[in-house]
Design goal:
Blueprint: H1 8-29, H2 47-59, H3 64-78
Helix pairs in contact: 2-3
């Protein structure tokens, strides 16, 4: 989507029109509109793996969450 305007009001109106057009186009084509991701993922793993990862995260001075995000980011970059 793209939109522009010369004032805040024009940008807001252009944005709303752009979103409306996108939603109407999706409906016409029978596609579900893209929805933003929340950034939250529920992950289930064996307890022994959880423990090993927590130890590695702590040893690197990171929380488990930060350690996992970094590892996943590196993996995704390698496969992009």
């Amino acid at each position: 989507m793209g939109f522009h305007g010369d004032s805040v009001g024009e940008v807001r109106t252009a944005f709303e029109e752009s979103v409306d057009f996108y939603l109407e186009s999706c409906a016409k084509m029978g596609h579900e509109p893209n929805k933003p991701y929340s950034g939250r993922v529920t992950l289930r793993m064996p307890p022994d793996l959880h423990a090993r990862l927590a130890v590695q995260a702590e040893a690197s001075g990171n929380s488990l969450n930060n350690w996992l995000v970094t590892a996943l980011n590196k993996s995704a970059a390698q496969h992009a």
